[in-house]
Fold this protein.
Amino acid sequence: MKLRFPIIGLILISILTCAQDKNSTNTKNTHEIIVPDLDIPWGFTFLPDGAILITEKAGQLIHFKNGKKTEISGLPEIYVRGQGGFMDITLHPDYKNNNLIYFSYASSDGEGDGGNTTIASAKYSDMTLTNWKVLYKAEPNSTRGQHFGSRLQFDKNGHLFFSIGDRGNRDENPQDITRDCGKIYRINDDGSIPKDNPFYKHDNAKKAIYSFGHRNPQGMTIHPKTGEIWTHEHGPKGGDEINIIKAGKNYGWPVISYGINYSGTKFTEITEKEGMEQPLHYWVSSIAPSGMTFINSDKYGDWNGNLLVGSLKFQYLDMCTLKDDKVIKEERLLDGIGRVRSVEQGPDGYIYVGVENLGIVKLIR
């Protein structure tokens, strides 16, 4: 009888713990460490020769090939504060001919104290960046440490999409198209703004905005068949979302949400409103998503076509099985591996995952 209450307590703890995340664990997968000993590999991309370029949030760009790491020179000063620092990286679609690489990072340049998200390009050769060019700088700067975004993705027409979070200014930035932050943007590869952007002709609007009403998108990828831009974003306590981005649409933050304040109080009473997009999928409780890609190869059998999302909070890779643009099943891969920050498919068709305080690993089924 003395064991009765401790046993009941353990059962309750188990129930409450499971309630935090209901995804089943798929144990038929493992991993191989490809790049060891990284702190926060925020983003990475593959060069045509098989080398990997990796952004460390603290402000380093690392070249990795044949087991050797080399730090690349030519970076500007990077503003490192809270969630901000050196973030995403991607190659120009015609990289083989122009050697252009694109970056998102936090910069203190511009108006006001602190910093804000910046998008830039540079030419790469022989472990050095040259011709650094700022393509977009969010304004104004802020000393707040949260919600910088920021992922990068070229679409099939050569436009560059990028995300910038609301920078902690929930009640002003996301719903105001005359202000930066809380938005998905679209620009040309040289930083100019496409004239068919949805707000290009609106007075006082930030003309690079493509969609608005976002909180903090840290995942972005292109659907391999439809060419649509998919994103995910952090909710507050609950309400992380997956969205398909459409021109000019309002994704609702913070007017509608499936989340609540971290304190447990509500900031909105509604989850739907006319004129605001519903998420394709949402999580309650939050998984704290970061990094996202589709499996688009034959390396994983019938996993081909599934969507992969990293979980910072629960430290696994979330595999979403899709049907008609709906998530019909979720499974934990690499369960307990660490805070998953970035996910990419390599040129060889395998999935590579950036894990904080571990490195980059290859997913093996």
